Amino acid sequence: MITGPIIYALIIPLIVTDMFISFYQLSCFPIYGIKKVRRADYIIFDRQQLNYLNFIEKFHCTYCAYGSGMIAYISEIVARTEQYFCPIKHARKILGTHARYASFLDYGEAENYEAKLEEYRCALSKDK
User: Fold this and answer.
1) Are 87 and 109 in contact (CB under 8 A)?
2) Hey, what's the torsion of the CAs at 23, 24, 27, 30, to 10 degrees?
3) Please, where are the H alpha helices in the chain?
4) Are 43 and 95 in contact (CB under 8 A)?
5) Is residue 36 within 8 Å of residue 26, measured between CB atoms?
6) 120, 84 in Cβ contact below 8 A?
7) Three-state secondary structure call for residue 105
8) pTM for this predicted structure
9) Kindly report the CA angle at 99 between 95 and 105, in degrees rounded to 5?
C-alpha cells in the first residue's frame, strides 16, 4: 500500500513516452526506409487468462506487461535507429545491449565503413 502510488505513478511517463516514441517511429522510419516495429510483438496482455490469479494480481500483471513490453518496444525502435545511423560497437564493453548490437561493426573498424553502413541500412527495410 505504501509503494503503490509511487509504482503506479510511472504510468504517466510510460504513456507519454509511448506517444512520443510511436510518433517518432511513424514519422521518421518511412523517411529512412526502416521497417516499423510492431508494438503487438512487444506489449502482450495474456496473463488475464490465468485463472489462478485474482483481480488485483491480474491488474498488477497488466501494468507490468505494459511497462516491460513498452521498454522492449522502445529498445527495438532505438536499436533500429542506431543500426541506421551508427552501427558501431563501443570501445568499452557495456551491459544490457540490444540484440542487434552483436552484429555491429567493431570499434575502429574503418575499412569499407561507408559500404558496410549502407548494407546495415538496406537490411532495415527487410527486417521482420
Assistant:
1) no
2) -130
3) 4-9, 11-32, 55-85, 113-126
4) no
5) yes
6) yes
7) strand
8) 0.89
9) 85
What pLDDT does 128 receive? 58
pLDDT score at 23: 98
Position 105: which residue type? L
Q: What is the mean pLDDT of each run of 10 residues along the chain (128 residues)?
A: 90 96 97 96 94 94 96 97 96 93 94 93 84
Q: Which residue has the cell 552501427?
A: 87
Distance CA 47, CA 62 (A): 7
- 83 grid coordinates: 543500426
- Residue pair 33/125 in contact (Cβ under 8 Å)? The answer is yes
Angle between helices 55-85 and 11-32 (to 10 degrees): 30
Nearest Cα to Cα of residue 11 among 64, 76, 72: 64
**CA–CA distance, 39 with 74 (Å, rounded to integer):** 9
Residue with cell 497488466: 62
Place of cell 543500426: 83
Tell me how long the chain is: 128
